[in-house]
Design brief:
By secondary structure, this protein is mostly beta strands. Among the domains are: 116 residues, Carboxypeptidase-like, regulatory domain (Immunoglobulin-like, Sandwich), CATH 2.60.40; 113 residues, Ferric Hydroxamate Uptake Protein, Chain A, domain 1 (Beta Complex), CATH 2.170.130.10. It is built from nine helices and 49 strands. The strands form six sheets. It has a 22-stranded antiparallel beta barrel. Strands 8-13-14-11-12 form a five-stranded mixed sheet.
């Protein structure tokens, strides 16, 4: 049966090749480039058709197009581009030959007067036309829009598209969620080469690594085609690198900046790009360089509460358990470079690209911990550095044989994240309340009043603990892929292509931690260590034999105003440089390897993916395009980690019990994907899609790291047989475009996700393991809590609608024609039934003559909630204005709350607050190809807030990062 199917497919392909080859003998090829008649810039996405047929092509990223199998003789080409005058060009086609032409198109604004299309309007029109030319549902950020007024990084650029919500670190966008699905559910590529995960636990990518100045465009695909990797529930983001155009090109930029939170002026950014084409324009080379440094400091607040009955009125009210007040002083810097080369063959090209980016975070974290529930006051200081390196290298070949198009590629990518020698110090004050603490302060007072409970006695605050930690994550991938596309035609009505290909990808990943810590210097032992500190650092004024070391000897004179907007105290601070010297001096003699922290979380493994696909595109006339296909993916993974059993009462020097463990997973998927495009009129386009996609587990969810705690109260157990989640996606998108209305799109989507991977916790009951795939030891001591991950037996649904309007007012009189408008709004609704487990005591039947009379039974229940990281509403508005050499852009972002933590009881769910932000950018052209510009970010000084459902107005988290400003100069030639 299978052989019969293969034979049928082979016969069909042979017929297609035969028909195509026969037709090619009486036809020729038209190639060319489409440019703006005034500026000479290429018009990406411009449409070219042979008049009276459905033969056509769209201009690619370099403005080039190719139309194969054009009948010999005189052909009339019709070239169209939104907001440009449609052109008809007659071309003489010779059988078996290629005719090359250049099509120059006039902007509609050139009617009756000499007007040059504005910078922002050109970027908008390029994005619109690329989106129109796409064979799927996608959103575009064009090269012009990125380059003329660039954002800080790629995440900021993507964040203005419909359906995209942003996650931030220190106020800077670093990750994106597509249609309410977390960053780990999306795939990031650079020129089609997959970017490896940059974190230690999940599969998300930190987009702040990549500077926008390196990019030539961004495409977000929301309905996948079979030739794309299927593990993207939300979508795929493809970052396109800049390539060399004809002629010498240089672009240099320098800027400085200011951060209001710490009142620093040391921010800077330098960017340079040079390119040219050689050997009659066959070889193109572009070299890019970028470096920057920003102060990404933040003030953070964490509050923990419980609901208690107020004896005064008998009402349940929130009560503060603890407050964590944190100042993070962070310098974030980037260093990057790129080399992109292409060599044009007679009917194809060879492409090579490599880019490297390094992101460094260096900082100090000062914490003032007020533990109200146990009257303890702690000061901590962390001195940390994190370096993330990202390297991609790709080599590709494209060749057009007229009857067949072939492309192949090989790539190597690597991400390396290291936190070398991160230092941590802790000082503690026990019984830290003032006398008669609750005579003036009520236990139910708001969190702002709780700081008054503490005595802040620095002479009774003592050194307790310190550690130094080294953390490494490394991921390397090698990918080989190839694709073949065979065009076909039946008369002048039906045309299209058949496409097939395959891919092999191997990934090796490791995570390693080494941590050395002191003994408890406050409680019990550690006398030799305290004496060592006193003798080696005599300037501290400490005495040999002191039972405790007071914080006053280590106090820093650091202070600043406006911490947490002036609402909470930063408190005493610690001399970071001194503590680092003490740790370094003490490490060999008095610091022990903390075995569990160093070995318990380590893992390493290999993943291999094999994929193949087949698809076809069938064009019926100019109005219907049908694109069915399927993708097959096979996955294999093997991970090694450790089983850890910490003994309840270890003897001095006794280490936990470790056993090496290995887990292997194998899965394969056959995923149908169908697209239909209907254009009943030239100005309207309806796109429909049904696709199936998957998402793979996070690394920590199935690497066999098993941990039994010292007190036998909990066990961390992976689910090594956990399955990849699978989604059925339904998409519909209707676009209307007009030269004056602009481009208006409404898109609806619905997703059903099965086997969604979710965290689960339950009490262990002997003989009632409800999850048999868990990697549990044969005998679990006691009745601990089991923490693991499972495949949700209930389906999750995500649905929503997106509205997008892009227009410019070129037709209005006088200065009003410089207005450019981009508006989009997204509404998302998700629902998931989350499995939960409880431990009930049920009577033993028949009742025994003596205790126990009950037995423990595990009961599985569930509750309904929305998906994490999903806002209900997202709105972006960008108003641009261009007047001659002046450009300005005002951006507004509004995003409703998102779910950050799901609890057993809905009262414990935690959410972000609604978020509203305003950014402004201005630019002025100067003589001699110079520009000056300024960016004003977070102009409304918006902070991040999180809340808990049952607590009301008391925040669980606040982050202040403040307003930033950049001013710079840029030189471009030509």
């Amino acid at each position: 049966m299978i052989n019969s199917r293969y034979s049928t497919i082979l016969i069909l392909i042979t017929c297609l090749l035969s028909c195509t080859a026969a037709h090619a003998q009486n036809s020729g090829t038209i190639t060319g480039v489409i440019v703006d008649a005034n500026s000479g810039e290429t018009l990406i996405g411009a449409n070219v058709l042979v008049k009276g047929t459905n033969r056509g092509s769209a201009a690619d990223m370099t403005g080039d197009f190719t139309i194969n199998n054009v009948p010999a003789g005189t052909a009339t080409l019709v070239a169209s581009y939104l907001s440009y005058q449609t052109r008809e060009i007659e071309v003489e086609v010779e059988a078996g030959r290629t005719t090359n032409i250049r099509i120059e198109m006039q902007w509609l604004g050139l009617v009756g007067e000499e007007v040059v299309i504005s910078v922002q309007a050109r970027g908008q029109l390029s994005a619109i036309n690329q989106q129109r030319a796409s064979n799927t549902i996608s959103n575009i950020v064009s090269s012009d829009r990125i380059q003329e007024i660039p954002d800080v990084n790629a995440a900021e650029s993507v964040g203005r598209l419909p359906g995209i919500s942003i996650q931030r670190s220190g106020g800077e966008a670093n990750q994106i969620a597509i249609r309410g699905l977390s960053p780990k559910y999306n795939t990031i590529t650079v020129n089609g080469v997959r970017v490896p995960a940059t974190g230690s636990t999940d599969r998300s990518v930190d987009l702040s690594l990549i500077s926008s100045n390196m990019l030539d465009g961004i495409e977000v695909t929301k309905a996948l085609t079979p030739d794309k990797d299927a593990d993207a529930l939300g979508g795929t983001v493809d970052l396109k690198l800049r390539t060399a155009s004809e002629g010498w090109y240089t672009d240099f930029m320098a800027q400085g900046g200011y951060t209001a939170l710490q009142q620093t002026y040391g921010n800077y950014k330098f960017v340079g790009n040079v390119s040219n084409r050689f050997f009659d324009n066959r070889l193109g080379i572009m070299i890019g360089f970028n470096t920057d440094r920003y102060d990404r400091s933040a003030d953070k607040f964490n509050g923990d509460y419980s609901l208690e009955i107020d004896p005064g009125d008998g009402i349940r009210k929130p009560q503060v358990n603890s407050l964590n007040l944190r100042e993070e002083t962070i310098d974030r810097s980037r260093l990057g470079g790129s080399l992109i080369a292409d060599y044009r063959l007679p009917r194809g090209k060879i492409m090579f690209n490599t880019f490297f980016n390094r992101l460094d975070n260096v900082g100090i974290q000062r914490q003032n911990q007020l533990q109200v529930s146990n009257t303890r006051h702690r000061y901590t200081l962390s001195d940390f550095e994190t370096n993330t390196n990202l390297l991609t290298v790709g080599l590709g070949l494209e060749q057009d044989f007229n009857f067949m198009f072939f492309d192949a590629g090989v790539s190597y990518v690597s991400s390396d994240r290291q936190s070398p020698l991160n230092y941590y110090y802790e000082f503690s004050e026990e019984s830290a309340f003032i006398d008669n603490a609750f005579e003036e302060i009520d236990r139910f007072d708001p969190p702002g009043e709780m700081a008054r409970l503490f005595a802040n006695n620095i002479e009774q605050t003592f050194l307790n603990y310190g550690n130094v930690r080294n953390e490494k994550t490394n991921e390397n991938e090698v990918t080989v892929q190839g694709n073949v596309k065979v065009p076909f035609r039946f008369g002048n009505t039906i045309s299209g292509y058949f496409k097939t290909g395959g891919k092999f990808r191997e990934m090796n990943r490791s995570y390693d931690v080494t941590q050395f810590g002191t003994s408890q210097l406050y409680f019990g032992g550690g006398q030799e260590h305290r004496d060592f500190i006193a003798s080696q650092f005599p300037d501290l004024g400490l005495e040999i034999g002191m039972a405790r070391l007071p914080m006053s000897a280590f106090q820093d004179n650091y202070a600043r105003s406006g911490f947490l907007d002036g609402d909470y105290p930063l408190g005493y601070t610690i001399r970071g440089g001194l503590m680092k010297d003490i740790i370094d001096a003490s490490r060999e003699m008095f610091m022990q390897l903390e075995v569990q922290s160093s070995l318990g979380d380590d893992y390493e493994g290999t993943e291999r993916y094999t994929a193949a696909y087949a698809m076809t595109e069938v064009n019926v006339g100019r109005y219907i395009t049908f694109m069915p296909g399927f993708r097959w993916e096979k996955e294999y993974s093997s991970y090694s980690a450790k089983f850890t059993d910490v003994q309840p009462n270890p003897l001095p020097g006794q280490e936990p019990f470790f056993t090496d463990t290995t887990a292997v997973r194998r899965n394969d998927f056959l995923l149908p994907q169908v697209h239909l495009q209907i254009k009943p009129l030239e100005w309207i386009n309806l796109r429909l899609a049904y696709t199936e996609t998957i998402t793979r587990p996070d690394f920590w969810q199935y690497s066999p790291r098993i941990y039994i705690s010292q007190f036998r109260d909990y066990v961390t157990a992976p689910n090594t047989r956990i399955r990849s989640a699978r989604a059925q996606n339904y998409d519909a998108s209707l676009s209307v475009y007009h030269n004056k209305i602009g481009f208006f799109t409404v898109s609806a989507f619905y997703k059903e996700i099965n086997d969604l991977i979710w965290f689960a916790t339950f009490s262990y009951v002997p003989g009632q393991n409800i999850l048999p795939d868990l990697e549990l030891p044969p005998s679990v001591p006691g009745a601990p809590r089991i923490n693991t991950s499972i495949n949700n037996p209930f389906k999750a649904t995500v649905k929503g609608i997106e509205f997008d309007w892009q227009t410019n007012f070129w037709y209005l009189p006088s200065f009003l024609k410089g207005i450019v408008l981009n508006l989009n709004y997204t509404h998302i609704v998700s629902e998931t039934e989350y499995p939960q487990f409880r431990r009930d005591l049920v009577p033993i039947v028949p009742r025994p003559p003596r205790p126990p009379f009950t037995t423990a039974v595990l009961v599985d229940t569930s509750r309904v909630g929305r998906m994490p990281n999903q806002p209900s509403d997202i709105m972006n508005a960008t108003i641009g204005y261009d007047l001659k050499g002046f450009s300005a852009r005002v951006s507004f972002l509004y995003q409703t709350d998102i779910l950050t933590s799901l609890a057993t009881d809905p009262a414990g769910d935690r959410f972000t607050d609604d978020y509203f932000r305003v950014d402004v950018s201005v630019k002025q052209n100067l003589p001699h190809n110079m520009q000056v510009f300024a960016n004003f970010n977070n102009l409304n000084n918006r902070a991040d807030y999180n809340f808990q459902s049952s607590i009301g107005d008391y925040p669980t988290f606040i982050e202040y990062y403040g307003f930033t400003m950049d001013i710079g100069v840029r030189y471009k030639f030509p």
